[in-house]
Amino acid sequence: MSRNVLGGFAVVVAAAALWAANACSGNEPPVPLALYAGEWNEDDARLDGTFVQEGPCLYVESSIAGSPGRWLVVFGVEGTSWDEDERAVSIPGAKYRVRDEVRIGGSGSGFPTGSIEWVVPPADSCDTRMIWMAAR
Asked: How far apart, in Å, are the Cα atoms of 13 and each of 7, 9, 116, 119?
C-alpha cells in the first residue's frame, strides 16, 4: 500500500473512532467537521459567503443570487483537518477560517443525509436542509 493510502486510512480510522466514542456518550463531536467517504467532489461550482461556526456545525452564509441562505459545508475525508486554535479547516490547497469571506468549490447536494456515505456525519443539531459538498 502507498503511504498516501495508509495515511488516508489512518485518518478514516481515527475519525470513525472519535465519532463512535462521542456517539456512544451522546455528546456532540469534538470538532465541527462532517466528512463524507470516497473521492473528493470535483464539481466546479462555487459558493461565496461568510464561513461561520454554530456549535458543531460549519456553514457558509451566502447572499449571492442563485445560492442564498445558509449551507452546511461537508468535506472529503482525505487531507481534511480542523485547527481549534485558528478555528479553521484545512483541505488540500485551501484553508477556511471561521468569520472569513470564502469561496468554496463543490456543489450543493440534493440528497438527504441518509443517502450520503459518511465517515463522520453532521451532528444532529446541524441544519442539513442545504448541504454543500466541498471540492478540493
From this structure: 10, 6, 18, 9
Q: Do 116 and 36 form a contact (C-beta atoms < 8 A)?
A: yes
Whole-angstrom CA distances from 23 to 17, 34, 38 are 10, 14, 22
CB 103 within 8 A of CB 46: yes
Phi, psi of 125 (to 5 degrees): -80, -5
- The one-letter amino acid code at 7 reads G
Distances in Å between the Cα of 93 and the Cα atoms of 68, 88, 89, 128, 135 are 25, 13, 11, 26, 10
Q: In Å, how far are 45, 92, 112 from 96, measured between CA atoms?
A: 17, 11, 25
Strand partners, 50: 61, 101
Give which of 99, 75, 101, 104 is closest to 86, Cα–Cα.
Answer: 99
Rounded to the nearest 10°, the torsion over CA 26, 32, 92, 18 is: -20
Q: What is the mean pLDDT of each run of 10 residues along the chain (136 residues)?
A: 42 43 47 85 86 95 81 92 95 94 88 82 93 89
- Please report, as a single letter, which amino acid is at residue 15: A
